[in-house]
Amino acid sequence: MNQAVATPPRIDSLTALLLPLADRTLLLPNVAVAEIIPYRGVQTSPDLPPWLLGQLGWRDLRLPLLSFEAASGGRAQLGATPRVAVFNALGGRPRVKFLALLLQGIPHSLKVDAHLARVDAELAPLELAAVQVGDGVARIPDLQALEQKLADAGLI
């Protein structure tokens, strides 16, 4: 019997999300984001690190709400139209399935080429790369390092 060997399909593009922050734009595959929700009901505490904005209720869970800007050495900001991106956690911790990240506007979905052009730009902590997206530059975040930052601080 003659069987053909199946080769996996080649991926030339993927659907991604541009996530607006106060001082940069992040680019992630849309499968990394579970949901975009309004900024609301954040429980804060004075003893939190500046990059941890508090806890946010989502689907009967309490999620840590992070500021990517502050975690990368900048300053947390709450703009006029804040949103929250709920991410799938990547660290394999049994009690941590999702994290929340503060956004400064509405994300934009787009198809991107699987081989994005890298931009020679200085990267902040927690950034893996800078890439050209249309006329702008977007940053690829290191979500595992962000999650590890929470673990190192004993917060998850």
Automatic annotation (TrEMBL):
Segment forming the signal sequence: none
Ranges in a coiled coil: none
GO biological process: chemotaxis; signal transduction
SMART domains: CheW (SM00260)
Ranges for domain CheW-like: 13-152
InterPro entries given in the database record: CheW-like_dom_sf, CheW-lke_dom
SUPFAM superfamilies in UniProt: CheW-like
One Pfam family of this chain: CheW
Protein name: Chemosensory pili system protein ChpC
Source organism of this protein record: Azotobacter beijerinckii
